[in-house]
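Hi,

Apologies if this is the wrong queue. I'm a grad student, and the batch job for NIPSNAP family protein from Streptomyces huasconensis produced an output file that my downstream script rejects. I'm not sure whether the problem is my script or the file. Here is the sequence I used:
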Amino acid sequence: MITCVVQYVIDPAEIEAFERFGRRWMELVDRHGGKHHGYFLPAEGASDKALALFSFPSLAAYEEYRALFGKDPDFIEADTIRDESGCVLRYERTFMRPLLPGSPSQASTAP
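Support response: The file is valid. Your script probably expects a header line. Output copied below for reference.
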C-alpha cells in the first residue's frame, strides 16, 4: 500500500470552495481504486494549512489513477473548482507507506 499525503497552502477566505474541491476528490479517489482518508482543515484561529491523505494498493494503481488527470471530465470538473476559486495557493505531495497496527515490520519481510 502507498499513501499520498498532500500538504496544502489554502486561501482561508475560500475555505468553502476548498471543502467542495475536497469532497469531489474524495469521491473520485474512492471511485478509481483508492481509499480516501479525508481532508484535514484548520480548526482554530487563522490558518492557511490543510492536509489530505489517500491510499492506493500500489504505486502502479496510483499511476493508473493519475493518468486520468486532464482527460476524464470528472477530474477536469474537480480541478475547475480549485482553479476558478483560487482556494489552493500551492501544494506538496509526498508518498509514504503506512505502519498500521498488526502490520509486519519491513525488516521481517525483506528477502
